Amino acid sequence: MTKDLDEKLEIPKIQSQMEQLLRNFGAHSSISNRLEELGFRQLNDIQYFAILYKLFQGTNLLVCAPTSSGKTLIGEMACVNAILQKKGRCLYLVPLKSLAYEKLKDFREHWKILGIEVEMSTGDMTLIDRDREEEKLKTVDLLITTYERADSILRSHPDWFGTVQIVVVDEVHTIGIGQRGARLEGLLLRLKLYYPGIQFICLSATVGNPDELADWLGCELLKHDYRPVPLEYRIVLAPGREDTIKTIVKDTLQQSGSILIFTPTRYEAEMLCKEISNFIREQDLRYLIDYRELRGRISEYRAQMRTKLDQRLFFSILNGVAFHHAGVAFETKRFIEELFRKGLLKIVTCTPTLSAGINMPAKVVIIKDVGITRPYLLLQTNTFHQMCGRAGRPGFDTQGNAIVLASCEGEKHDIELMYFLPHSTIPKYEPVDSQFMEHDHLLEQFLIWIAEARHLVKEQELRELTLKTFWYATKHRRKPDMTITHLIRVGYYSLENLLLRHSSEHTIREAQMIPDSAVTIRQMDSSRLEAIIFDRTYIKASFTREFPNCACGSFEFQHRYKAKLCRHLVKLAQIAYRQNPVYTKDLLLASCHEEQLIDKLLKYRMIKIQNGRLAITDFGYLTFILYLSPKTAYWIHRQLPRISMREKFYRDIMYVYDLERKHRAKAGFLDALQRLLEDDYTDLVYQMQIIGQDLQIYPGDMEEFVESIRWIIHCFYTIADLDQISPAREFAAEAFEKLTRKNA
Description:
It is built from 33 helices and 19 strands.
C-alpha cells in the first residue's frame, strides 16, 4: 500500500521567481517556460516594472530606457501573451526594412515553436508581394512591418485593424524626423481614434521630452536608466584620428573584442576599412581572427558578390574588417551583420545609418568625427547616443566603451556641451517635435481624414482632429498666438484682404506712394521673395515660408507673428503679385501663418464641397490609396496630358523621384532609368548590377532606386488610367511590366 502511494506521488515543480511573477500578473504559462529555454533566468528591472505597470492587463506604455536594456522583450511578451490567450492579433512597427527583417528572424527563432504565425510586410512594389500580403493578413498572428506599410494597410484594409489587440512601436522617437515622423504621428492618431481598444507599447532610447510624448500617446511613462552592460564615455584627443583608431583596434582585438567605427560619409567608411585591413595584415594580427571559418563563409557567399564594391569588401573581410552603409546591397549588409554578430567579423566601419536600432552590439564604439568642423554633417544629439548605445555586448562584456575622437581641446569642450549634461557624462537628449509644422505633411493628413470619414466632413470636425495632434499638443501650446483657423477655412483670400488683415489701410496707402521703379526683386520662388526697395535709403525686405522681415525697423522681427506689415513689405507683395500671383499668394499665406490647406486641396481637385461639407473626389481617393503626397499627385496629374515623348516621361519620373526624396538624384540615375526601360534583358537583378557598375552607382542605391521607380511608374499609370490619358498610360504600362516581369 505504501509502495503504491509512493509511486503515485509526484514531486511538485519548484517555480522560479520569474515564473511566479509572470503567472501572478496574468501571463500565459508558456511564456516563462520558453524564456527559460532561451536562457533567461530572471527578468531585469525595466521588464519587472513593465509587468507591475500591468503590461498583461492592457495598459498603454511608453518605455524609455537605454539601448540593450531589454525593451524589445517587453513588447515580445505582451504580443505573445495576447496571441496565446486568443485576445487578438498583434502589430510590431519599425522604421526600416532592415529592422523588420531582423525582428522577423528573432520572433520566429524565439516564439514560432509555440505555434505563433509571424509574418512581415514591407510593401515592395511587386505583384507577387501584393498577392502574398492578402494571404498574410488573413492568417497572421503577429505582423512585423514598417510605419509606412502599416499606414498603407490602414488605408486599404481598415477592417483588419479591428482584429488587432496590441501595437508595438519601436523607435517611437522617429515621430520627430521628417516625412516618416509625420506619417507615424498620423498613423498613431488615427489608430487611437478609430480603435480605442488597442494597447500601445512604445519603445525608445532617446526622447528628451518623454512626459509630453507619453501624455499625447495616452501612455504610462516607464523611464529607467538600467543597462545590463554599463557604458563608459571617453572623449579622446586625437589630432591624427587614423593613428588613434589603429591603436584602439589593436588593443581591442587582443582582448577578443569587436569594434564599430562610425564615420560621417560613405567614402570615409570605405577608406578607413581599407586602411585598417592593411594595418591588420601588416601587423600580422590575423591570428586574432577565426580566419579559416571566415574564409569558408565568404567562399559560400562569394558567388553573389558580383560588383566591384563587393569585391573590395571580399578582400577586407578576409582580414576581419568590413564597411557598412546605405550603398551596400541589402543582402550583403545582412551577410556582414550576421558575421559580426557571430564574432567572425571583428571591425565594421559604417555611417550613422547603422545606429537605427539594428542589433549589432560591440565591445567598443568609436565615433571618428561628430562633424563640428563640418556643420552639414553635424551629428544630432539623439543619433549620437544611438551610436554610443551600440557599445557593450550582453553576456560577453562587463563594460561597453564609447570613444569619441576630438582634434583639439576646443572640439572636446564643444562635444561635452552638445551631447552631455553640464559637468558630467550623462546623456542629453533632444525633445521630440511634431513634423506637422511642415504644412505639406499636414496637408496629407487633412486628405487622409476626409478620405477615411464615413460621412461628409464639417470644418469643425477637421479642427477637432487637428487639436488632437501631437503638433497642437506641443507647438501650439508653446505659441498660443499661432492659429489653426486659416488652415481649415474654406474660401480663397484676395491679396487685398490678406494685406488688410496684416497691415492697415493707412499702411497700404503709404505703400502706394512708393514708385514701382524703386523696387528691385532679387529672388522670387516658392520658398523666398526678396527685394531691395529705395525709400530715401536702400532697404531689404523679404518673405519666407517662416516669416516676413524688413530692415526698415518699423517691422519688429522678434514679434513677427503678431506685428503688422510695414509699407515696404506691402509694396513688395503688391509688385510680386502682379508678376507671379500663384507663387506670391501661396508664399504670403505661409509667411503670415495663414496657409489655407483645405483651399489647396480644393484647388488640387482632391476634395469637393457637397451640401456645405467636404467630400473626397475620385482623384483625391486615388492619391490617398497610392500613398502619394497631395503635392506630388497634383503635379503628376497636371503633367500627364503633356507627355507625348518617352524622354519627357523619363524626366517627369525623375522629377517625382527627387520630389518625394526632397533632394536631387545623383548624376547617372536618369541614364540608369533609360537603360532599365529600354535595354533587352531577362535578369533584372543582373542588369541592375551591370548598369550600376557602368554608371558608378552603389548597389544599395540602385536597389532603392528601382524599388522607388517601380512605385512611381505604378502611380503614373493609375492616375493616367483614371482619366484615360494616352500615351502616358501606355508608357507607364510598358515600363511597369518591364520592371516586374521577373516576378510574374
